[in-house]
Design a protein that fits this description.
This protein is α/β, with parallel strands linked by helices. It has a single domain, classed as Rossmann fold. Helices cover 39% and strands 16% of the residues. It has ten helices and eight strands. The chain has an eight-stranded mixed sheet with strand order 2-1-8-7-3-6-4-5, sandwiched between helices. A hairpin with a 4-residue loop joins β1 and β2. α2 runs parallel beside α6. InterPro entries: Cofac_haem-bd_dom. This is Haem-binding uptake Tiki superfamily ChaN domain-containing protein. It comes from Ketogulonicigenium robustum. Pfam families: Cofac_haem_bdg.
Amino acid sequence: MQAKWRDASGAAISHAAIMARAARADAVLLGERHDRPDHHLWQAYVVAGLAAHRPVVVGFEMFPARLNAVLAEWVNGELDEAAFLEKAEWGTVWGFDADLYMPIFRLCRALGLPMAGLNVPRALVRAVGESGWDGIEPADRAGLTPAAPSPMAYRQFIFDLTGGGRPDRKAQSAADPAFDRFIRAQEVWDRAFATHIVQAKADHPDALVVGIIGMGHLQFGGGVGFQLGTLGLQDSLALLPVAEGDAMPAPGAADGVCLLPRLPPQG
């Protein structure tokens, strides 16, 4: 059965057409829910398809950039799986079941696709959320510049995603200044992922950079794609998976949505 895709407007688009468009981009951002095996298998299939078109570098939210040397050791065949996960501090820096992600890691190793960490220390995210960038010493900014303020559609999406206007919340709208602290923290991650994608592109100028990133960072014209644009990398696509029975993202949420058959229960 062929993959079924919808474009940004919600109209049907062929698998061949969207893959050809993605292969021409500077960066392709593949969303996920972290605990969904079907999402990670889809990501692996898309990476493999894009790698048939041109060189690919795969960036991962799951690893901080400081572990790039370990990722290179894995791709180069210098570590077995257990040693890789231990040396990459998997249980500390991420913690979701590694088996969810191993198909993508094994694919990168099999095809010789460079891997790059996209993340930064959580302490920086918390500190910027609390104090803003002005409260962070330049030496403690992990090489990041302050995030560009997010568009309102993205703020609204994050506000709704995190509970909307519940009576017990201090912030009662996406525009409420009381929501700024939360959105500042979200933007640190967005800026970090974008900054490291730009660096991966600079390190591999002829390659397409594919980001493996939680879908909450990719939607409604904001998040990583928006920050990439402010950093000068204009041609990026955000692609999302959605399984049968799951709610479809609203039109405009992403550049493409792939409709997946639901996997049977595990075990």
